[in-house]
Amino acid sequence: MYIAMNRFKVRPEATETFEKIWLERDSHLKELPGFVEFNLLRGPERDDHMLYSSHTIWRSYDDFIAWTRSDAFRAAHANAGKVDREAIYLGPPEFEGFESLQTVKADHH
Fold first, then answer.
1. Which residues are CB-contacts of 48 (< 8 A; sequence separation ≥ 6)?
2. Domain ranges of the chain
3. I need a surface site. Which of 4, 35, 79, 81 has the fewest CB within 10 A?
């Protein structure tokens, strides 16, 4: 399993705009081999920003790389250049990628 995360520091006055952009976009993720799950997470609020994270789970690192090279990836990010980044973000997103070493699941009976 591979987890791809981007952390976003969003200006307090732009949180509504940020959430609207993300919640209304078509990510095209469901179409891709190896895609498992996506979450948009709202984190702690600071004086100068609200922290958000996009959290995508892939079956493998290779599946994630295939996504980044796909037409679906380009379509999902097509409107990114139309956003006034400076009005929304405190700097660029911070990417973090992780390969899973262990997974523990609940034992439901």
1. 9, 11, 12, 90
2. 2-99
3. 81
